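ARCHIVE ENTRY
Sequence with per-residue tokens
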Amino acid sequence: MYTSLITTQDKALCHLFLHCCFRDGQFTQSEVDDVADKFVRLGLNEELNFKDELKDYNSYTNELTDEKTYIEFLVKQICPTNELALYSYCVELAVSDMSFDNKEDRLFKILGAILNIAEPDQELIQKLIIQRQLVQDEKFF
């Protein structure tokens, strides 16, 4: 299923971003815009078509049975050297809809463990990103 679709580092990064954004099951236009913006800012659009990747993601996401194995697969494909940056990008996408539910919390515990980020560091990054999102949305510190 996804292993035959995700064959490059860029595809893995795109699918990780999509998973982090859509893990709560909500698909708002602003979330799609946020993923697309990161897609372009990181230059992924030079090799990939965002709409095709979104279609591929949607083709297998309901069949995911082991999220840890899926995330491990993606991270192995990405082979990150800047784990904290990757983690923070993912958290940013998850909170872009101003919610952070139990599914997303579980996802980030899995991702943090795979990236070897200590729990206190994970919590700090999450708190920082959530507060930045609040300041951006509410326009106050």
In short: The CA atoms of residues 98 and 133 lie 8 Å apart. The mean pLDDT is 88.
